[in-house]
Amino acid sequence: MNMNDAPMLPQQDTGLTIAGKTYGSRLLVGSGKYKDLDETRAATEASGADIITVAIRRVNIGQDPNAPSLLDVVPPSRYTILPNTAGCYNAEDAVYTLQLARELLGGHKLVKLEVLGDERTLFPNMPETLKAAATLVKDGFDVMVYCSDDPIQARMLEDLGVVAVMPLASLIGSGMGILNPWNLSLIIEQAKVPVLVDAGVGTASDAAIAMELGCDGVLMNTAIAGARDPVRMARAMKLAVEAGREAFLAGRIARRFAASPSSPMAGRVA
C-alpha cells in the first residue's frame, strides 16, 4: 500500500461487520481496571461501544453466584459480550477458558483469543495462538485473534478461518501508540477479514491514526480505564475513532515535498 495515495473509497460507512453481524460502533472496549462497577458502566456508555470484551479468568460473569456480576452493569441484552483469554499462556488453557465462557453465556460463539508469551511483555505467543485458533474454529467458535503485527502470521490466522485479526500497535497497556504503521498497512492491504488494532493505544490521536490507516476498528481498555477521567476519555475515544474513519473514507491528500498554495495564482483577479 502506498500511504501517499488516496484510494477510491465508499462515501458511506456501512458499519463494522464481524461474523455476519453489523455493529454501529468501531470502538471495542474492555471491562477491567476500573475502580468499581459504576465507573465501568459509565465509561462503557460514554464510549458508545457495542462490543465489550471480558477477561473470563479475572471478571465474574456468573462463575461466582455470590459476587457482583459484570453482566449486571453491562447486560448482554444491550451489548455483545466478547469473552477473552487474558492470562492464558498456552493453547490448552485458552481453549478451555473459551469453552467455559460458552457455557456461562448460553452457547455464545464470538470470542477473542489471546495466548501470551510472557508476563513481562504480554506479547502474543504465535505458535500457541495458531494452535488454539485452529482448535476453536473446528469447535464452531467465531474467533477474533490478538496477534503480532506480522503480515505472514495474520494471513495464516485468516487461512485457519478466524473472523478478525487484531494486531497489537504496541505492548498491552503501554500507551505507546502505533509503533509500526507500515506492518499494519501490509496486514490491512491483504486481509479479507476485519483488522482491528488491539493493545498499545494511549490517547485519542492513537485511535484516530489507526482508523486513518484503514483499520476496521480499535479495541482498548487501559487507555480509558487508566485515564484520570475514564468517562471523559471514553467519549474522546469514541470521537477519535469516528473522526479517523471519516478521514480514511474521505481520502487524505498526497504528501508532497513542495508547497501547494491554498489559493492558486492561476485565474486570479489582477
Could you characterize what this model shows?
The chain is an alpha/beta fold and 270 residues long. Helix content is 34%, strand content 15%. It is built from eight helices and ten strands. The chain has helices spanning 37-47, 91-104, 126-138, 151-160, 181-190, 204-213, 222-225, 230-250, and strands at residues 16-18, 21-23, 27-30, 51-55, 80-84, 110-113, 142-147, 164-167, 196-198, 217-220. The strands form three sheets. The protein has a five-stranded parallel beta sheet. A three-stranded parallel beta sheet has the order 6-7-8, covered by helices on one side. Strand 7, helix 4 (151-160) and strand 8 form a beta-alpha-beta unit. Helix 3 (126-138) runs parallel beside helix 4 (151-160). The chain is globular, with a radius of gyration of 20 Å.
Q: What is the overall number of helices?
A: 8
Please estimate the helix content. Answer: 25-40%
User: Approximately what portion of the residues adopt beta-strand conformation?
Assistant: 15-25%
Main sheet makeup:
5 strands, parallel
Cα-atom radius of gyration: 20 Å
Q: What structural class is derived from the secondary structure elements? A: alpha/beta
User: Helix and strand succession?
Assistant: EEEHEEHEHEHEHEHEHH
Task: Give the overall average pLDDT.
Answer: 90
Taking the alpha carbons of the first and last residues, their distance comes to 43 Å
How does the overall form come out from the CA principal axes?
globular
Strand line-up across the major sheet: 5-4-3-10-9
